[in-house]
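Cont'd.
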Amino acid sequence: MDSTKENNNDKDGLLLRMGLNDNKAGMDGLDKEKINKIIMEATKGSRFYENELKKEKQVNQRIENMMQQKSQITTQRLWKAQLQVDKLAMELEQSRNLHCTIIHIDMDAFYAAVEMRDNPELRDKPIAVGSMSMLSTSNYHARRFGVRAAMPGFIAKRLCPQLTIVSPNFDKYREVSKEVMEILADYDPNFMAVSLDEAYLNITKYLEERQNWPEDKRRYFVNRGNTTENEKSEAVISKAPGLNEAAVSISPLLFEDSPPQLQQQEPEIPSQAHFEEQRDPQVLQNSVIFGTSAEEVVKEIRFRIEQKTSLTASAGIAPNTMLAKVCSDKNKPNGQYQIPPNREAVMDFIKDLPIRKVPGIGKVTEKMLKALGIITCSDLYQKRALLSLLFSETSWHSFLHISLGLGSTQMERDGERKSMSIERTFSEISKAEELYSLCQELCSDLAQDLQKEGLKGKTVTIKLKNVNFEVKTRASTVAAVVSTAEEIFAIAKELLKVEIDADYPRPLRLRLMGVRISGFSNEEDRKHGQRSIISFLKAGSHVLDPVGSVVDKNDQDQVMKPPETSHKESFFTKKRSEMSWNHQDNFKCEPETKQSFQVSQPPSLSKEEMKENLETENTDDCQVITCPICFKEQGRICLEALNRHVDECLSRTLVDCDPKTVAVPQSQSFCSEVNLDLKTHKTTDSLLIDFVPSVSVDVFSKGKSMEDLNTRAGDEQSPKQYSSLWSKSSLDEYFYQNSSQENEGYDAKSSGGQTTLQTSFPRDETLVCPVCNLQQKTSDLMLFNSHVDICLNKGLIQELKKDKVNPVMNCPAENSKSTGSSGKIQKTVNVTAKTKRPGLMTQNSTSKKIKPNNSKYTIDSFFK
DNA sequence: GCAGATACT
DNA sequence: AAGCAGTATCTGC
């Protein structure tokens, strides 16, 4: 069923929840209507169904609350939020790392594929692996009938009576998985296995080395043995000892345990298409040489996997894990997809990507966002300010990451696990003794698992699901870590007892029990540095050191900056960002240097860059800096002095600032547009859009001069210039595109890479600060942006301080009290969103306590 | 720290 | 004949 109309329909929502209604399944076996009908019939009236309905109502309620909250958002808040969000966006943009090649490998219908491989009778049949009560995988044939993972087998059977359900054989899957992982290790010994059939690799380093490899080192021999299933099975299970002679002679490390069979013809080796011409006609027939590009490497990996296991894999290549994961899904099964490592390509890919495709965004989030009109990642970007007000910080941060196409480049080893658990479903148990002994069993199983990883934890949680599918968890934390079955059970037993007693004399009628342990001892170490952005985005603020390992930026900052000087950071951070933009641009033009470019330590530094670098490393160093307020170069001024200077400049402009003295035609300043709408005090989205362009240009045009922008608007660029100046920022493009859709006021359009800008943005060479309305003495966009940022912050403070209408914003200050700001702008000229704000109130969509005064969006928290 | 919610396979 | 999982993490108090 079309997922676009699932919103207010319980039935559809339920089906969606059951994972059957996604538009992800292309099914010719049965049409969607039919599938949904069958599922409904099979499920309706069951306790399960009732519970699903209940859960769905909760989600709907949540959405309702969110909408309610949304309706109360004032334009000022939205506006402030926009500033904050865009500040972060700018920083994120600046720290964007495109220098990693991450790949995500995903075996196609893994369990099912293994079973089919090993049992010829299963081929060409719809099959699923699992049991009558639950399936873990289905093959593509079965998927056409709507049979999917996480579906109970009995329902699957109704959808597809011919379905063969094979019980899982995990040992075998593990074995096959191991074979695959062994191949992967050749490319990244540090790769991260997500599950038996999925892994991430960072092949950045490998790729570099490979550039110099002779062909022979990249040559693989085609094992044409389309072995019979049994042989294959044997080959897999009992590592065939025979080696391919040719392979040995040329590349001893390869195919060390390939099946020796060389028989008939392979029906369709996908990689065959990429055979390269060989000089040696002898080898031509059965060897293949892969190139040195990432794409070729991945083809090689998939080729090797198929050769070794007779199974196919899909893969994604991208600059970060989040994108790689999405990519691997794109040409599934048995395909691959690459996002080239440049911003434009990333943005282009992200542009129309439905948010649901993004790992971490599940059904619920999708539904909530859909309620806000957000379907694609562009929508996500457009509504970023709103999202920052409606969602928790973690959430909107992750949304922002997603909409900018950012993600982790780090391979997190799974040693970082935070909890371990075990749970089991059974037919109803209600006798206390049975429950206890079951619990004990679980505890000892868990203890075993713990032992395997040598973990000990302090928190024990039990999970109970009653026959109505209602889930309860109860946790208890003890002083010292525990790990043995007895210790865990002692705690779990108590928890269970409380629950049993609570319902007495009615029995607990359970269908599932689980035990979890968390609070591992090593978790202590990294207490504050914990970021909770979903793991895919986790390293968004990570930079690579020259060796390719990851340095946490936060830690870095902490190390590099004494705490007492950290309050001065923001301005310089910004400066640094701007410079980095230039770096990025440079690297864009010089692919050669790209590879070796490392954010934290650029190999070749210009003088300018040097300065910036020193600055980041030592706040006491004196630098040549241009003041973003008066735009006078400050020479080699030390930070203290510069801050003083900026402060002075600021207080001066505060006095000087008289909009009337500056003749700025309304049409030339976007600010006038904002004014117009702010006056109306609309709280609609369109209002948001009104001022988005201003900030967006600000944020996303770093490194481009205003002349560039204007020229761009006026067209007639050589294509080359065009691409380096503008089109790299395709976010801009759909930004304009979208704003034109939603707001007539902005006559902007984008077609075929041509973006015409006809906003009220100044069209001449003059830059007019939209906040203070003063003509600026610079045409350097970076400097200009700094100025605007500072003005914005200044304006907010002013506004609050005087509690009167700000001439620029032309709207009353929000009733938040300014507690902290003295007359003089503090050293915290710019507040960077990166800065941790410990005391902030968190928000949730159901929160009742969104009081303007203690909201995290009050100016105080802004400037904390 | 706890309980419930969400996501992924 | 009836029947819908297991694991980890995140979120909001």
